[in-house]
Amino acid sequence: MRLTTRTTLRILALVAAVTASGAVIGKPNHLVAAPKANWNGQVAVTADGSYRMGNPDAPVKLTEYVSYTCPHCAHYQRESDPVLRTTVIPKGQVSVTVTNLLRNPIDLAVALLANCGDPKRFFVRHNAFFATQDTWLAKAEKINQAQQQRWYQGPIIDRMRAIANDFDFYEKTAGWGLDRAQTDACLGSTAVLDKLKEQQAEVAKLGLDSTPSFTLNGEVLQVHDWASVSKAIGAKLAEQHTGAI
């Protein structure tokens, strides 16, 4: 059947009206699914400069207190991160916050660099330091006593630069598109340093003295490994009637 010009215009007008209303042709409005939130991509900086990934209203909130020079923290990260990112975080059931528990000047330098750049990519940098910890931390065995004294004496920026040089951190940040001047700016950031001090105050308040340590919905967990943390998350989710890990 041929359409008359008038009929064609009416059809075009109808299509325009439906499109403008946001409806999908051939599918009732009430059946149009709302886009799902990408909770893995939701990264926020908290008041004390910690970083949270996931649904801010998640019923279960895990906070990890970690040291970048702690081998157990690196092991925990390798075990936990793939599981959390593919199960409970994308479902919006659990959020994960990373807070620094600084044990030495190297921790401080790495923490400053993990904060260096786009906040949305914090967890990329965070994972990169833990994933390569065996390589860069091994360099400490070849650093003599005189070199190490530079980490503890003098202005903070000079100490941080010395550590960055000794552990080849400038090469790592160059891979992130940061030149030496930009990296030095991060190493000397008083704003980030103040936030890290706030985090240490929280660590002291909670009485944490080992890494990794954890809180779940604000309560300190007396465990330090992924298997135990996973069980605690599962139990908390069961209490919340939101499923289990």
Structure characterization notes:
The protein is of the alpha+beta class. 49% of the residues lie in helices and 11% in strands. The chain has helices spanning 5-21, 71-86, 105-114, 122-131, 133-137, 145-149, 156-166, 169-174, 180-187, 190-206, 226-239; strands at residues 43-45, 51-53, 60-66, 94-100, 213-216, 219-221. Strands 1-2-4-3-5-6 form a 6-stranded mixed sheet, with helices on both faces. A hairpin with a 5-residue loop joins strand 1 (43-45) and strand 2 (51-53). The model is unreliable at 1-34 (pLDDT under 50).
Strand content: 5-15%
What is the spatial order of strands in the main beta sheet? 1-2-4-3-5-6
Helix content: 40-55%
Low-confidence stretches: 1-34
Spell out the helices and strands N to C: HEEEHEHHHHHHHHEEH
Provide key terms for this protein.
245 residues, 6 strands, six-stranded mixed β-sheet, alpha+beta
